[in-house]
Amino acid sequence: MVRVLHASDFHLDSAYGGLSPEQARQRRQESRDLVRSMVDYGNDHGAQLLLLAGDLLDSDAVYGQTGAELSAALSAFRGEVVIAPGNHDYYTAGSPYATTLWSENVHIFTSPAMERIAFPQYGCVVYGAAFTEGEVTEAGLSGFSVRPEDGELTKIGLLHGEVGSKDSHYRPIRVEDIAKSGLDYLALGHVHRYDGVQTAGSVSYAYCGCLEGRGFDELGEKGFLLGDIGDGTVAMRFVPFARRHYCIHSVDVTGRDLTEAILESLPPRTEDDLYRIILTGERSGEGEVLAALEQQIAPKFYQLELRDHRTARRDIWAGCGEDSLRGIFLQKMKQRLEAAESDEERRKIELAVRFGADALDGRE
Q1: Of 10, 137, 283, 322, whose CB has the highest number of CB atoms within 10 Å?
Q2: Is the per-residue pLDDT at 114 higher than 70?
Q3: Is 80 exceeded by the pLDDT of residue 314?
Q4: What is the domain count for the chain?
Q5: Gap between the Cα atoms of 210 and 256, Å rounded
């Protein structure tokens, strides 16, 4: 058995264009620091093999300290590191992978064809390939199978590419080719979310997702995979590891004070995260200035963006008492409203009226 930490898609030195220049600078440094924290976690949990499935860098135009900090972080790993460059950080003679000084425990695939690195001390072998240009349209595992002499070893693949997308420009990988490969586990990069460990025939494969989200199209927990491979078993678990999260949060503010409605709907801790709050429901007609509201509550977030999706206020009692199903419904609800004993009860009844009227009118 070999204990493996599988990670990818750090995208170090991303632009973070939606943030202020100071926040963007801070996020870039935090991303570098997160890699070192991940290595420390791997060391603390007995990882022997660190598999990095590409796009560790966002491009070849990285800041001067980035390559040096990445190299220093990986040199601190107590086991062996294997890297398969991706479409953002593809390998060339002038790329950071070729020009950075790496420690002896770091091994980088440099060819678009499948290569092999054996680690007899762990009883395993790693097969993998590199992007050497920004696009690769050839099927990633077409015609590949492990060497017969590796029969007793744990056989691991490491690739950056797209499973199941035959027209992809980023190394399409057919599921049937995974099944025929003879691998025990295929560690993948490129897709920025974790959707579980999948199987193709007897082969297990997984995308670990990105280490941390970089925009509102990368929601949810981000992290890496850690587990044991060998003896016919693959036991990998997802480790949430992101320092900050992107969150989209909708709030129905109908008939309520905007600040109160937003703050009451939030989870306990939001200070480290980046939020897009979407206001739904009906406008009060008071002409609120959202810029002032955003400035007021912004300190509760690392970054805040407000979006107003409210509709114009309607007279919810229009048609009350008419000889129709809607009119009868409104009449009964108005009687309940008049009998209500608290503001909270009245607010709930008015909300029920809005939902009921919308349903009767065929609205969502």
Answers
A1: 10
A2: yes
A3: no
A4: 3
A5: 38
Burial-class residue 216 by CB neighbours within 10 Å (0-12, 13-18, 19+).
middle
Residue 158 and residue 212 share a domain: yes
For residues 255 and 235, state if they share a domain.
no
pLDDT per residue as tens digits for the range 78-112: 999 999 999 999 999 999 999 999 999 999 999 99
Specify which residues 49 forms β-bridges with: 4, 80
> Do 9 and 25 share a domain, yes or no?
yes
Q: Rounded distance, CA 68 to CA 91, Å?
A: 17
Give domain status of residue 274, yes or no.
yes
State the pLDDT at residue 334.
84
At residue 364, the pLDDT reads 61
- Spatial distance between the Cα atoms of 96 and 69, rounded to a whole number of angstroms: 12
Query: By residue range, what is the domain housing residue 294?
Result: 246-308
Both tokens assigned to 38: 């991940």
Do 130 and 263 share a structural domain?
no
User: 231 and 211 in one domain?
Assistant: yes
Q: Which tops the pLDDT comparison, 314 or 307?
A: 307
pLDDT of residue 270: 97
Rounded-to-integer distance, Cα 36 and Cα 73, Å? 5
The reply to whether 316 falls in a domain is: no
Q: Same structural domain for residues 231 and 204?
A: yes
Residue 287 has pLDDT above 80, yes or no: no
The one-letter amino acid at 55: D
Task: Give the pLDDT of residue 190.
Answer: 97
Half-sphere exposure of 2 (CA within 13 A, CB side): 24
**Contact call for residues 170 and 161 (beta carbons, < 8 A):** yes
Contact 176, 140 (CB under 8 A): no
- Within this chain, do residues 209 and 349 fall inside the same structural domain, yes or no? no
66-71 CB contacts, 8 Å cutoff, 24+ apart: 66/12, 66/13, 66/32, 66/96, 67/96, 67/99, 67/100, 68/100, 69/32, 69/35, 69/36, 70/12, 70/32, 70/35, 70/100, 71/100, 71/101, 71/102, 71/103, 71/106
Rounded to two decimals, the pTM is 0.86
**Of all helices (H) and strands (E), which one includes residue 75?**
helix 64-75
